[in-house]
Design goal:
- This protein has 32 helices and 7 strands.
- The protein has 770 residues and is mainly alpha-helical.
- Among the domains are: 126 residues; 128 residues, no CATH class; 134 residues, no CATH class.
- The N terminus is likely disordered.
- This is Glycosyltransferase RgtA/B/C/D-like domain-containing protein.
Length: 770
């Protein structure tokens, strides 16, 4: 049984009895309501910018700025009307990046010292918006102007999904209130079903929305299904990003500093030798523009706005899947993206990648879409590819791998079929990514140190097959565990760092009797249980198998269209790349395999949905039940929903444990870090902070050089400063990682009390010095 390919229609259809009224002469609103409403939107942006101190104006401004420019861009290029909604946010990002980079470049020569301030940014955006509006107005509308957008206002059913992220938001804030006093180690703070926590209720609502979308897909249209996916994705993202008094995440600590620097300066310096983060417009120019236009702080942008932008990615993936699949199986594919553990836990802490992934998903959608004008499609492909280049380097490199695999196989097939359009488009996208990355990272920003580091890794370590496989583990066990950082005992870690300091850091002078204070094990993680891993790992492998089978069929089947063959070949390339990342320690160090999986899933889920759709023609009920079980089980495992009953799990539902210590940042910890950074003597001496303390110190000071994570008495310099977080002082735990080895051990309070003085404390964080 074959299914004809078709477009997703994320715009609501007009009532079948509706007949558009004839426009009266000179009645512009009746003739072109799209033009009038767009013009009104541009005027509203200009009128509201002076009022951006009001929170209501901020909400409206962000909604307009992140959607209206994209709508105009899609309409100006005359892309199919059903693509307007899924591409509105990525298109707006392109307009913002283009106008922001332009005003940042031409502003200083024209005497504008701070071009990323409200007036220059607004003028640049309005000029681009007016130019696009003029193009739209001079062209005949591709569809009846009464079709679509205005009818969204009458869709009261779309309000139901909006409840899901709202509950997740309130649940995260309630947990924060419970955790603001002191963390309860290993215990869920107001986060159990028994206490009726909104956080757990929010997680249950997400699960219900995803399962309900699969079961009820036949009775819902694409608009409602897209809204459900957006609501579920946003709820998951907010449940993590809002969990902390300060910034949530790991890489985002560095990204946030770059944002603040650009916003304060009102200008972005493109010369960034060795500074890959500072070279990305997603964490420099873009947040400076949004701050200038809306008045929203960098912290709110990171915690609220960027996750709201990234939540469009599952909707775009749904539109991509609907190019080939019926609604139920397209929804399954997009839902598999939302239930990944790294979707919620990692992405809110990776501002740059949230923007890069949204643009890359849009690039895939445009590549597989039927666009009447090849020129328009090519222009949008080039713009999206360049957008990925300037927003995130790793997404660009892995995107080249995904598209490159599709290009090779599709080109070989075109030799026999003589159908070259898809080859040209994917070739153009790949070429733009390669050349754009080369020029941007070398000639423009000089920030290509990440590539040289990866090359050096291969030169030193080679392929490095499963480097973290424990002694006695066979290859299968090592593959199931993946390239995870091994946990060693306190004694082993002390021996490791003592050797390193004795060889490479001889300038460190410990106190004479430091050896009398050995570190001890505490909170050592339980060994990895293969039985626990098999459920989640097995479901993932079933999904990979389904995607792989679909890819082979689509590539080898004679009646496959060029677009189907392109998707199949990209799936095959992605599967091979993911296997290499899991096997090779060197590749895994170059690009985090969890993030690579999320990027690859944008095409892999098409194969999963395709296989499920084929199976449903044979056993429809069994296939539907299997889809529900797969999505439900993966979400329950990866969201820590099951762990909420026992008090364990991730930070979105827990008030203690390793995940909490890693990601929950108290404002008092940042305050202590800033105090330490302001001490002139500390800038000339070594600072010690454990693995997660270094993140707080970086957030507060921006300093990375001269900060050591080894809180081991034998290697602490007698003139050092020691920065201790709440996990160190309240729970007595230290987590450090050195030379690829992780250890959890007791905080050396007895040693510090004997040989160092408390020079600062605020009840949450403490600073020691002699």
């Amino acid at each position: 049984m074959t299914t004809a390919t078709k477009y997703v229609d994320l715009t609501p259809r007009a009532n079948s009895h509706h007949r558009p009224a004839s426009a009266a002469p000179g009645d512009l609103l009746s003739a072109r309501p799209d033009v009038v409403l767009a013009a009104a939107g541009l005027v509203a942006i200009a009128a509201l910018v002076p009022l951006r101190a009001s929170w209501a104006a901020q909400v409206v401004l962000l909604a307009l700025v992140l959607t209206l420019p994209g709508v105009l861009l899609v309409r100006a290029l005359r892309l199919p009307a059903p693509l307007t909604l899924p591409l509105s946010v990525p298109g707006s990002l392109l307009v913002l990046l283009t106008s922001g980079l332009a005003v940042n470049t031409v502003g200083p020569p024209l005497g504008i010292e701070a071009p990323l301030r409200p007036v220059p940014v607004l003028v640049a955006l309005e000029l681009v918006g007016v130019a696009l509006l003029a193009i739209v107005a001079t062209r005949t509308p591709a569809v009846d102007p009464h079709y679509g957008w205005t009818r969204l206002l009458g869709r009261w059913d779309l309000l139901a999904p909006a409840v899901v992220p709202l509950v997740a938001l309130l649940g995260a804030l309630r947990l924060n209130a419970a955790d603001s006093g002191s963390p309860t180690s290993g215990v869920v703070a107001a986060g159990t079903v028994v206490t009726g926590s909104l956080a757990v209720v929010g997680a249950v609502l997400v699960l219900a929305a995803l399962v309900g979308g699969i079961v009820g897909a036949r009775r819902a249209d694409d608009v409602l299904l897209g809204a459900t996916l957006y609501a579920a994705g946003l709820a998951v993202l907010w449940s993590f990003s809002l969990r902390a008094e300060s910034i949530y995440g790991y890489d985002v600590m560095t990204e946030f500093r770059k944002m603040i620097e650009t916003i304060d300066a009102g200008w972005w310096n493109a010369f960034r030798p060795g500074d890959a983060y500072g070279a990305m417009l997603s964490v420099t120019v873009l947040p400076a523009q949004l701050n200038a236009l809306s008045g929203v702080s960098a912290e709110i942008l990171v915690k609220v706005v960027f996750p709201a932008v990234f939540a469009t990615t599952p909707v775009i993936v749904y539109a991509l899947c609907r190019r080939f699949l019926r609604p139920r199986w397209a929804f399954l594919g997009a839902a598999l993206l939302v239930v990944q553990p790294n979707f919620g836990q990692q992405m809110p802490g990776l501002a740059k990648q949230e923007i890069g992934f949204a643009l890359f998903a849009a690039l895939l959608l445009v590549l597989v879409s039927r666009v009447a004008s090849r020129v328009s499609q090519a222009v949008f492909v080039v713009l999206l590819a360049l957008g990925v280049v300037v927003t995130h380097y790793s997404s660009t490199y892995f995107g080249i791998v995904i598209l490159g695999g599709g290009l090779v196989i599709t080109a070989v097939a075109a030799v026999f079929t003589h159908r070259w359009r898809q080859v040209v488009m994917v070739g153009l996208a790949t070429f733009t990514l390669v050349v754009g990355a080369g020029l941007w990272n070398t000639t423009v920003t000089h920030s290509s140190s990440n590539l040289s580091d990866a090359a050096l890794g291969f030169e030193v370590s080679g392929f490095d097959l499963l480097p973290n496989r424990a002694i006695g583990d066979d290859l299968l066990t090592g593959y199931i565990k993946g390239n995870t950082t091994p946990q060693i005992s306190a004694a082993q870690y002390e021996q490791l760092v003592t050797g390193i300091y004795g060889t490479d850091r001889r300038y460190i002078l410990p106190v004479p009797d430091a050896a009398a204070y050995p570190i001890t094990d505490v909170g050592t993680a339980a060994p990895v249980s293969i039985g626990q891993l098999l459920v989640g790992f097995g479901l993932q492998q079933i999904a990979y198998l389904m995607a792989g089978v679909a890819a082979l069929v689509l590539v080898l089947r004679r009646r496959s269209s060029p677009t189907e063959r392109l998707v199949g070949s990209m799936i095959l390339g992605s599967v091979v790349a993911l296997a290499m990342l899991r096997l090779s320690g060197t590749l895994a160090a170059a690009y985090n395999q969890d993030r690579a999986l999320l990027q690859a899933l944008m095409v892999l889920v098409v194969g999963v949905g395709w296989s499920a759709q084929r199976l449903s023609s044979w056993r429809p009920r069994v296939t539907t039940v299997g889809a529900v079980v797969m999505v439900g089980a993966l979400f329950a495992l990866n969201s820590s929903l099951l762990g909420s009953f026992s008090g364990a799990g991730r930070i979105n539902l827990a008030g203690g444990g390793e995940d909490f210590q890693r990601f929950y940042t108290y404002r008092a910890e940042v305050t202590a870090a800033r105090w330490l950074g302001d001490q002139a003597a500390s800038r000339r001496q070594v600072v010690y902070a454990d693995r997660y303390g270094t993140l707080r110190f970086l957030l507060g000071t921006g300093r990375q050089v001269g900060v050591f994570p080894e809180l081991v008495p034998k290697v602490i310099d007698k003139s050092a400063w020691i920065y201790a977080t709440s996990a160190n002082t309240r729970e007595g735990e230290v987590r450090s990682q050195t030379a690829g080895q992780m250890a959890s051990y007791g905080f050396p309070s007895a040693f510090l009390d004997r040989h160092f003085d408390v020079v600062y404390t605020n009840g949450t964080s403490t600073v020691y010095h002699r």
